[in-house]
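Title: Prediction job returns without error message
Component: structure pipeline
Severity: low
Priority: P3
Assignee: unassigned

Description:
Job completed but the reporter wants confirmation the result is attached to the right record. Sequence as submitted:
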Amino acid sequence: MILVTGGAGFIGANFVLDWLAAGGEPVVNLDKLTYAGNLENLASIADDGRHVFVRGDICDRALLDRLLAEHKPRAIIHFAAESHVDRSIHAPAEFMRTNVEGTFTLLEAARAFWGALEGEAKQNFRFLHVSTDEVYGSLAPDDAPFTEQHPHQPNSPYSASKAASDHLVRAWHHTYGLPVVTTNCSNNYGAFQFPEKLIPLMLANALAGKPLPIYGDGLNVRDWLYVTDHCAAIRAVLARGTPGETYNVGGWNEMTNLEIVHLLCDLLDELRPDAAGSYRRLITYVKDRPGHDRRYAIDARKIERELGWRPAETFATGIRKTVAWTLENQAWVRHVQSGEYRQWVTKNYAERT
């Protein structure tokens, strides 16, 4: 049995689906079901007895203690987090609560549980913390990609909260001996991504004939990682990672935001042409967000060298799969675009034109 936090969100749900499809052992899935948590993501395993869903908060220590005592997982995979930079700028408090207090509470519950284990159960237990490349800060155009030795230099409330959680995880290993491993990944994309992030937002807006808002000059660079490749990396780190170590997970796909949007428009022109003309006509430049990091890039050589992982998808293959999934799952897209979602889009973009 493994315990997954945040397993109804984008990456967490993909991991749970991927884990069970690969024949992994049963999963206890703890998710608060905030706006980005969605049980529709898990509809295909609704009747799978290996999946136990629990709605709850990682800040609830009593609930964590009960779940650990009842299910006795051999590992905790910690996805649960507030993750959108723009939301953190507007309302940072929830990011501090979930990402910092929540991680602290989970670490303390894990430490108590692990401390009571004996023999092989104690030796084999793992706490896998899923983090982001944004904790490293921003790179200049000619800088080398982030390695695991790069200092944490967060520039947004979101990345600061994740950097804090990374430090907590590290400290709980060095102080208490808790067997932790940390992954820092680049920008994920793929099925079930909530349409506040760049790729699903552009696809949803384009198909609705709405403007495609690009911050600033559109030349901010990100490294893009297909979500199922990320899931495979997490499995590798869980199986073979060294306690106390950090592993960067990247897709080796650096692209500007503008390049991404152009490619999405071109794929839609091919797969779902619009009688009004190319989707590129909808591109609109809007005021940049405060403190927008210019470039992220991940050096993923350590995980390849030590654990044998490398992404299976190129960006060309992964993005085509993502667009095709979106076109085939428009009901899912409509369902997640609730009133709360529309209010958020209005709040974030109305004053940027």
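Comment from assignee: result matches the submitted record. The longest strand covers residues 126-132.
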